[in-house]
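To close the chapter, one final illustration. This time we ask the reader to focus less on the individual chains and more on the assembly as a whole: which components sit near each other, and how the overall shape emerges from the parts.
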Amino acid sequence: MEIGLNHYLVLSTILFAIGLVGVMRRKNLLLLFFATEILLNSVNIAFAAISHYYGDLTGQMFAFFVIAIAASEVAVGLGLLIVWYKRHGNIDLDTMSTMRG
Amino acid sequence: MEIYLYLALFSPLVGSLFAALFTTKSKTLVAGVVPSLLLFTSFVSSSILLVHILNGGAPVHVEMMTWMATGDLYIPFGFVVDQVSVTMMMVVTIVSTVVHVYSIGYMDHDKSFNRFFAWLSAFVFSMLILVMSDNYAGLFIGWEGVGLCSWGLIGFWFHKESASWAANEAFIMNRIADLGMLIGIFLVYWNTGSLQYDHVFEAFKGLDVDTLALIGIFLFIGAMGKSAQFPLHTWLADAMEGPTPVSALIHAATMVTAGVYLVVRSNELYSLIPEIGLFIASLGAFVAIFAASMALVNRDMKRIIAYSTLSQLGYMFAAAGLGAYWVALFHLMAHAFFKALLFLGAGNVMHAMHDELDPFKMGGLGKTMKATMVMMTLASVALAGLFPLAGFFSKDAILEAAFVEHHYVIYSVLLFTAGLTAFYSFRLVALIFHGEERYTLFGIHPHEAYKFMLVAMSPLLLLAIIAGSLKMTYFEMVTAILPDIEYHIHSHVTFWIMTIGTQLFVVIAILYAYKKYTTIGMNVPDGTSETENTFMYKLLKNQYYIPYAYDEYIVKPYTKLSALFWTEIDQKVVDATVDGIAGVIYDSGEQTRDMQDGNLSTMLRWMVIGTIALLILAVMFGLTARYAHVLG
Amino acid sequence: MVDHILSILIFFPALAGMFGFMINKDSIRAYGVAVGVIEFALSLLLWFWFDGGVAGMQFMEQIPLLPSFGINYILGVDGISLFIIVLSAFITMIGIASLTETPNVKNMIVTLLFLQMTMVGVFSALDGIVFYVFWELSLVPMLYIIGAWGGPLRIYASIKFFLYTFAGSLVMLVGMLFMAYFYYQATGEWSFAILDWYRLILPENLQLWLFLAFFLGFAIKVPMFPFHTWLPYAHGQAPTIGSVILAAILLKMGTYAFIRFSLPMFPDASVALMTPIAIIAIIMIIYTAMVAFAQKDVKQVVAYSSISHMGVIIIGTFALNVEGISGSVFLMIAHGVVSGALFLLVGVIYDRRHTKLMSEFGGLAHVMPRYATIFGLMLMASVGLPLTINFVGEFLSLLGFYQQSHILTLLAGTAIIVGAIYMLAAYKKMFFGDVTKEENKNLPDVNKRELLALIPLSIITIWLGIYPKPVLEPINKSAEAIVQLMHDKSITDEAKMRIPSPLNKAQTSQTSSEGAH
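The assembled structure is written out below.
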């Protein structure tokens, strides 16, 4: 059996679902970042696969952009996380409710 | 001649403004003298105009300036002096000059002396506008103006609750009638395209009877208010709260006759609709007897005279309604003189008696107040209609008119009222000036009024005596523009029987009144005697319970309804609905604020839900767009 | 300068307001008065330059803003807006001059100057969007005035005022967008210019919907029953100056907009909805007059009386003939003067006694005779006595409407009765009787600063009552143009019949008079 576009898309969907569940369920900020990474990368897979399928490089270029932005986002995010940890001694999501409406 | 017209019209205004300059200052004689002099100027100018008209001069007609002009509407400040308005001008200026001079004495001790003259002259100005205007809108200016001044003068002693109440009552009741008048004016405008008398009367001839009747009715509603005809009559008796000179000028001689003037002025309208005229006459006759009956038992000197005014206004309307416009105007004139005199005499008595109004507490004043007694007696004779005083000629003419026109019911009502008039007038004279000196019980030392006040009254006395002899001159003048119907009873025998019969009836009524109220030991009504407990007596004493009914069934419900509208409807329904809508929005915010609890994972959860919802929508839209052709 | 007088009139106060922040606190009053006087002088200049013989727009200015969407900065005045602009300049000047001791007086004056800008902007804008922008902007300074200097319930009152009117005008905005869209459909070009919209002839059902959309915005502003409840709160809480401007000018925006938008744009809908609107107006007249009678607070009496008078203005507007429309525009001016004066008068007594309850007064005519006299004059004007300014407007409005309906005019005419009832009752409670309260025995009469504001208003009240011609003539000219436009573009037979053409009528009357000779 040849590995086709659909397989990549299924993989992407599964990864996306895993990431989504992670985003919704995890209370630890670090794990949340992991989940976000999984989400982004699932999309990257889809981009790369579809790009290959159509023979159009735009999708792959887009994937690179996403990787670059994700990296910078993680850098900023981890920085904030460390500051938060230093202040509060934990990185539990439930403690972050100062924006309560 | 125009200069005299302007002089006559604007002198009172200048006088009023002059006195108004001093309103906040303490009493100065100048504030009374200058307006009086200016009024005298006005009187002289009016006399010159009268002479001009009497000599067959053309009516003086001026257009001063535009007032309102929009669309097709054009209303100028225009004034006309013709036979009718010059009569009114003479009446107004004579009586008001007298009253002004008299008031200098009467208001001598009042601290608001200056304000009094400002109002009084303003009133004369408004009244002159009313009678001199050449269009209905101008008449309406004067109409409301006299209402305003009447408000200010009835409530002149505004520290008294009853006075300010009466002032408001008069104003509001007049306003009710003014609405009718306003509608009448609108009708005139939309049917004739103008408000100028000459144009309007010309156009009336081409209108159908129904429209004319409507116009006639609405204008007459206006007249009913000013002239205090039933059912808008209650304010006149209450208006006696004002100073007595005011009652003499406004509530006897001039303002209240404005309604009669309106009907006479619109005679070309009312001649075309005799049915409405008959209604006016019937109402007039009814008011004549209705008011006279209330005067029979009243114990307030000024109110008695007020009811008599009301009754005489009924006579005038009876005449005007029957088409005898010149008779109505003649009675208006004669009545102005003797009624003003009567009121001013009553003012002297009040001064002497320290503002006591109950004639049962007086008696025997004739000894100390001879001049006043003579004047009031003669005025009462004139009012009663005895030969040869003014009232005889004018009232007799009204009776004859009713007889000749074959309205025997109206005739007999008016005849009977003449008897009542004689009775209550002399009841008053007898109680005040003759009989026991009951005032001694109250420790009052009456004194005669100032000399100059008596001198000021004398022109009225003279006119009350001689006005009747001017009847034919007057007739010739005024019928130049009014229908010149002479009311002659063809059979000489009937004529003499009627005249002498009427005179005898009146004399008997006078003698009865004298006998009843001058006997020594006459019982003063105190609520115990048998007559006082009869139903009729109570009915009359309470003015047929009409003021009570108005208070109970109109004033109180209005007040209650207003409060109800405010607290129950405005606050609890209208505003509560608005607040309710706002409340729903607030509540929904309150309910959904848990979504924004600041917890990142909850927010993420909502984000996911939102994404899914959007995805579903996108898919649905995509599918419908794709299969739109299949679905049709 | 002649060409840009309107822009100058609009932006001069705003600029001056910005500079006002830099002025020393002690001299800010003088500065404010000076700006007010200059602005008023400019508005008089506008009146002076105004050609009374021209019915259409004058002093037109046009600057493209977003030409592709047809949004332009267009200004212009005609006889209808001219006097409201003059009035707003006048009232603002008077208001600043008579300003009592206020905390943060600098902010107050700057706010008033900004308010001035928005008011002139509303009345001179000839582009829907520009109109809308000024219309909404006018809410902000008023919100601030009520919210910052108001009484104890000021927050509630100001928010109610803001949200209520704002909600209404959003619906109006949607109406405007639709209008522009229909214009686009009809001509292929976008336009928000009001004069372009005038040329658009819409089918009747469309007119009805658009009329209602505009109506909601205007009706809340007027305010018409049952959208009026924000007004008593706003007046009750606002400081004197706020009430004066609110009653004198801001309310007129609603009635002005009816004449500027609703009538010429939707003549058939105006005819179709005339009766229901007249009935609402009659409810306004009678019902609010009765509510006014029940009030205990004199300021609320005046507030409710404003609503009652606005009812007469609406009646005049929907008379749809020259007499009625001229009358209603004149009554707007009249009511601006009279209600402004009445609120100032209430402010006078409030400054002295810090209460507005009528039961606290009584017998004031003894201690404050001048005050009582001026109050009496304004009372009589409010009641609509002839030879005062209000009478001309009321008379013409009712006269005009009589052509449309007799019965409804009779009912609307009760305004002269019910108005007298509550006004006289209030006057009696405040001024007549004996002085019962100790605090009232030594109240000082009106002082010079108060007279400075009240005397000009009194003079105008009488002057325009006796000689309304200089104002009435230009109004009449523009009213004729509007009625003619409505007559020409109406499509239903009923509307053609209900809206008489001033031109034809003049001709027929001429021919008939010729025939008579």
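Chain B touches chain A through eleven residues (CB under 8 Å). The first strand of chain B starts at residue 60 and ends at 70. With these observations in hand, you are ready for the problems at the end of the chapter.
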